[in-house]
Specification:
The protein is mainly alpha-helical and about 300 residues long. The chain has a single domain, classed as Four Helix Bundle (Hemerythrin (Met), subunit A). The protein has eleven helices and two strands. Helix 2 runs antiparallel to helix 3 and helix 4 packs parallel to helix 7. The longest helix has 29 residues.
């Protein structure tokens, strides 16, 4: 009787896959990527501790963004890019730019249940509370889908990284985190008792779930966004780019870091749909062919 070859059976093929297991990793880029995930996890822990830690939790989201930028740059400079690094980066991004901002938005609004959710529930019942929960879940799911889609469609060539399809997850997290950071800055300001400051603070709180929801939907959209880092800082650029950089530095000096982050991330996030709408509605100019002049039509 012929003895079957166990390596050709489904069970044998499953165990023989171990020959393809990962043996080496690039240490420095991987450690920087893990710092990204640690910052996101720490942000969740701080948010759970109470309102006095919301500001620091928002700062940790931006620290995670710095790590997210550095790991890819270090991998390319050291020529150690790999599929493992890309997958690890996306897993850490799910924590820092998916779960952490969603939970942060949820906890911030729950902390203001008496003065914000209470009046809304008086008019809408428990609709506003359920809307906040749905918004947090939708944002997190959109971030997961966005990162999974990026892994499937991503190309390792640097020339293909000049634009994004859909709002990048760090930018979406930056929109949410910057609003929370700015609101905490207002709440701790000496002039918070004024009608202007309190009005801005309440407006931010009510707008926060809608901004979070729109940021999540933009992540899974097909709206194109420019890769600002590659567009601005790679290679030699016209002198106007330097003027723009100086303008940004001046804006931070005048408006402060918190408000500047709100304006910067908000402008970037909503520039995509505005540019898309502008291309849809603007008239298409028809250039006449050589030797044919347009007819002179008079009323």
């Amino acid at each position: 009787m012929k003895i079957p070859d166990k390596s050709k059976t489904p069970r044998g093929r499953f165990f023989h896959r171990r020959a393809h297991r990962l043996r080496t990793v690039a240490m420095l880029p991987s450690m920087i990527t893990l710092i990204n995930g640690i910052c996101g996890f720490a942000a969740i822990g701080l948010v759970a501790k109470g309102p006095e830690h919301f500001g620091m939790a928002a700062y940790l989201i931006f620290y995670a963004m710095i790590a997210d930028v550095l790991d890819g740059r270090v991998a390319r400079i050291s020529n150690t890019t790999s599929s493992f690094g890309g997958q690890l980066d996306s897993l850490c991004d799910v924590i820092s730019f998916g779960a952490a901002p969603a939970f942060m938005m949820l906890r911030v609004l729950q902390a203001h249940r008496q003065d914000l959710i209470g009046p809304a529930e008086a008019m809408l019942g428990d609709f506003f509370t359920r809307f906040i929960w749905v918004t947090a879940v939708v944002y997190m799911c959109c971030a997961i889908i966005r990162l999974a889609r990026f892994n499937v469609e991503n190309e390792e060539a640097e020339s293909s990284h000049m634009a994004f399809t859909g709002l990048p997850s760090p930018a979406a997290a930056g929109v949410v985190a910057s609003l929370i950071m700015f609101s905490r800055h207002l709440a701790t300001d000496e002039a918070f008792g004024s009608i202007l400051f309190e009005g801005i603070y309440i407006a931010i709180m009510y707008a926060l779930p809608f901004v979070t929801l729109s940021s999540g939907l933009l992540m899974v959209s097909r709206v194109r966004y420019l890769h600002l880092f590659n567009r601005v800082f790679r290679g030699s650029k016209p002198l106007n780019y330097l003027y723009f950089a100086l303008f940004v530095v001046g804006m931070i000096a005048v408006c402060g870091l918190q408000l500047s982050l709100v304006l910067t991330f908000g402008a970037f996030a909503y520039s995509g749909p505005i540019r898309w709408a502008w291309r849809k509605v603007r008239p298409v100019r028809h250039i006449p062919a050589a030797g044919h002049e347009p007819a002179n039509i008079t009323g």
